[in-house]
Write a structure and sequence with these properties.
The complex is a heterodimer. Chain A is of the alpha/beta class. Chain A has 13 helices and nine strands. In chain A, strand 5, helix 9 and strand 6 form a beta-alpha-beta unit. Classes of the chains: A alpha/beta, B alpha+beta. Strand 3 of chain A pairs antiparallel with strand 15 of chain B, so a sheet runs across the interface.
Chain lengths: ~270, ~525
């Protein structure tokens, strides 16, 4: 082998398509959106540092939570599989009790720009027991917290709001995230960041996304990913969960159920 | 409590407890000459081997001592410190023997009689006790007898003869070596360094005979008869009176009939004499170990850097973890006091989320907090307190399921708390209130506020923003309303009533925001849908 190439290979600066494709593709996590999975060659990486660049309030956190929910099916979904009967509440309680004791990896939020809303997180099936909000006084402290948390293996994801991180910080966090098999999600405000974009192309991130919103549709641009090229924007329908919609759906379902009851095949439907 | 006069007692006298405890805590400073000075009499009362090698003796005045040894490190004698040490030693011995009497500041009394069966004889019992004491590296003299007073008298007189032997040995040395010493003293100091070794070699043979531990009454009474009365508890005035009629040793005392004695000495002294003779029983109170842990350590020299302090704290914690391990307990918090020379004592609590006992786990937490700590002036002593500990629950959970995650999470949270401070690591609490400002509250980690299951399921709305502004701001964005309105009108019962029409809006940048309109047609921004 060429000595320079050999050197680069030892430093793990060269990515070889041959071995990576076999290893990683199985480990990709689906995002819940088919066209996004497609451009991400299968889905999100199984662990690592993810960079999200967007204006505050586009739905960046909702996108990530939707992805995380795919990995950790919530009790409601479990209960739904068990059927919607009187017993379901029991089942739900049971599963809730079982899993809430131990199998609750933490979600850590470091220096969110404003107060986090507990109701929003509860509606995304994150119990408040798994939720930790950190108020770090300095960037150094915030980064230390992120590194420790991600490394510990006790967290599902660590969300860190920072305007600027340099190459060393990101490399550290990326390695820590790989070690702890969790996500470190770096949220950066797009309005101020636009000037810095060219620099960020070669940061050692697992994934870098830019998010913009056009009415009901979210445009996700892949700036960088470990396997594959940067991609043009894909359109995702990501409306916020709406009560009115839910009610409408419920009504429709009830109507159906009514029909079924009329046919007296309620039990068959189960 | 009263006990029959037939049980065997062991009196253990610690001759230089303060010195020993100092030396143990800072083992690195072995070649420093140290002496403890009694401020009241202005005399040295404890001298370590290095100092002794330079001819510094117990009972010497300060001035002459400092002339003999210019680098002598002096420490004030502390009654309290020794009493605490005695208690520590008693704590260790309590695991081996049941009946311990504290005789502060520098002695312990053990009732051996009821332990003999367990350890199959006095020899086995004493070996185990001796081993435990040696592990704590303290110098001691012990004697057994069939009454407390007699045991005490023998032990103290043994200790005295010990001292005089050392002095004697020194004299013979200085006679033989004086010539050469005088010659070499000018040229090199290296000879001084050699002397301690020679010394310990000299003392060793005699140190074997330090203890008089025996069951035979003959041997005890033989030794007892040689003891001088001045080491006993008999009142000084009475001692003086007795000396005048020629009674100086125990043998003299026995030759006089009791009635004769009773005429001459006070009632108190008479009771002690009766105890000595084994006619009266000793009135003692047995030691009960305390439920909380407290340790106090004086440093050999002052330390101002926190990382230099860590090894010392580590040694304190080792003792604590031993204490907890024995009791099958673990603890959630310890308190360390840093005694600063020119400022008031700094007492810091260290908390752990997960109950732990291992010293290494504690050290991890403490070292993180100490990183950010600056002492105003050097630290001369440390105290460690563990007020509450809980008995470890043995759980039969499955080893392989998720447990490690839980432990990892608890460890992580402890570390975060100790580095960032307790107020900066928080949980959210959800309160069932329609007012958005009140529904989310910050709570500390310790408050195990379990969400109310009935409340959560029904009243959680999914169309709520992820981020809420601390207080609503007048709307300055250009926003297009995409959903609404939703009226929240509540809180008339307390002073924070609100009447708002909430809308969801979207700005040109694609930001989805939560805005509301007051009855006065004023628009406010209240949150972001992240």
């Amino acid at each position: 082998m060429n000595p320079i190439l050999h050197d680069l290979h030892n430093k793990q600066w060269v990515w070889t398509a041959a071995n990576a494709k076999q290893q990683q593709l199985k480990q990709q996590r689906i995002s819940g959106f088919k066209n996004l999975d497609k451009v991400l060659s299968g889905g999100f990486p199984h662990a690592g540092m993810i960079h999200l660049q967007s204006a505050l309030g586009c739905g960046e956190l909702r996108l990530m939570l939707a992805m995380l929910e795919q990995q950790h099916p919530s009790y409601d979904q479990l209960a739904a599989e068990h059927g919607r009967s009187e017993n379901s509440s029991l089942v739900q309680k049971h599963t809730k009790h079982n899993s809430s004791e131990y199998n609750q990896k933490l979600y850590i939020f470091i220096n969110p720009p404003f107060t986090l809303n507990a109701e929003f997180l509860l509606s995304h099936n994150i119990t408040l027991q798994q939720l930790i909000v950190i108020n770090a006084k300095s960037t150094v402290d915030a980064l230390w917290t992120a590194e420790q948390s991600v490394k510990s293996g006790a967290c599902t994801a660590v969300f860190i709001w920072q305007q600027q991180l340099n190459h060393t910080h990101i490399k550290k966090l990326e390695l820590a995230a790989q070690q702890g098999q969790s996500y470190c999600i770096w949220l950066q405000s797009a309005l101020k960041a636009s000037a810095q974009t060219p620099k960020q192309q070669n940061l050692p991130l697992s994934l870098s996304l830019s998010i913009t919103r056009q009415n009901d549709v979210l445009d996700v641009t892949v700036n960088k990913q470990k396997i594959g090229w940067a991609q043009n924007a894909v359109h995702l329908p990501l409306p916020f969960k709406s009560r009115t919609n839910a009610v409408l759906q419920k009504q429709r379902e009830e109507q159906k159920v009514n029909n079924v009851i009329a046919l007296n095949s309620h039990s068959i439907n189960r | 409590m009263q006990f029959d006069t037939r049980s065997l007692w062991i009196y253990i006298h610690f001759s230089q407890l303060q010195l020993d405890s100092m030396a143990r805590n800072q083992a690195s400073e072995k070649d420093q000459a140290v002496a403890i000075v009694d401020v009241a009499s202005n005399q040295l009362c404890q001298v370590n081997t290095v100092a002794r090698a330079q001819a510094v003796k117990v009972g010497m005045g300060l001035a002459s001592a400092s002339l003999l040894c210019s680098e002598l490190h002096l420490q004030e004698y502390s009654h309290e410190l020794e009493s605490k040490q005695i208690e520590n030693i008693a704590n260790h011995l309590y695991l081996l023997t049941s009946d311990i009497v504290l005789a502060p500041p520098n002695a312990l009394i053990l009732r051996a009689q009821n332990m003999l069966k367990l350890y199959q004889g006095l020899e086995g019992y004493w070996q185990i006790i001796q081993h435990s004491l040696q592990e704590q590296s303290v110098n001691f003299v012990a004697a057994s007898a069939y009454s407390v007073q007699a045991a005490k008298m023998i032990a103290l007189s043994l200790s005295r003869s010990q001292q005089s032997q050392i002095v004697k040995a020194e004299r013979t040395r200085s006679f033989t070596g004086s010539q050469s010493k005088r010659d070499s003293a000018v040229s090199t100091i290296s000879t001084n360094n050699n002397t301690p070794n020679n010394y310990t070699a000299n003392i060793r043979p005699s140190s074997k005979q330090r203890h008089l531990i025996t069951e035979s009454r003959e041997q005890i009474s033989k030794y007892l008869s040689r003891c001088m009365l001045e080491v006993s508890d008999i009142d000084h005035k009475d001692l003086h009176k007795l000396a005048r009629i020629g009674i100086k040793s125990y043998a003299d005392l026995c030759s006089l009939p009791a009635a004769e004695l009773a005429n001459r000495v006070s009632r108190f002294s008479m009771s002690i004499i009766n105890e000595l003779k084994g006619k009266d029983a000793a009135k003692v109170k047995f030691y009960q170990p305390k439920a909380s842990y407290h340790d106090y350590i004086e440093l050999l020299y002052e330390i101002s850097l926190s990382d230099k302090l860590l090894p010392v704290i580590g040694r304190c914690l080792d003792k604590l973890s031993q204490f907890l391990l024995i009791r099958n307990a673990h603890s959630l918090s310890v308190e360390i006091g840093f005694f600063q020379r020119e400022h008031s004592t700094l007492t810091l609590p260290f908390n752990s989320i997960r109950p732990i006992y291992k010293s290494q786990d504690w050290l991890d937490i403490i070292s993180l907090k100490l990183e950010s700590l600056r002492f105003e002036s050097p630290v001369y002593a440390l105290s460690l307190r563990c007020l509450q500990y809980e008995v470890a629950q043995v759980s039969n959970d499955d080893m392989f399921t998720q447990k490690s995650t839980h432990v990892a999470a608890m460890t992580l949270l402890s570390r975060l708390q100790s580095k960032l401070g307790q107020d900066n690591v928080r949980r959210l609490q959800f309160v069932d209130d329609f007012r958005p400002e009140l529904s989310t509250q910050h709570g500390s980690l310790l408050s195990e506020h379990r969400p109310n299951k009935n409340a959560t399921a029904a009243s959680i709305f999914s169309d709520r923003p992820g981020l809420l502004l601390p207080s609503p701001q007048p709307l300055s964005l250009d926003v297009q309303v995409i959903k609404g309105p939703e009226r929240i009108q509540t809180g008339w019962w307390d002073d924070q009533s609100i009447n708002r029409d909430y809308y969801i809006g979207q700005s040109q940048d694609g930001q989805q925001v939560w805005i509301f309109k007051t009855p006065n047609q004023e628009w406010y921004l209240h949150g972001y849908f992240i």
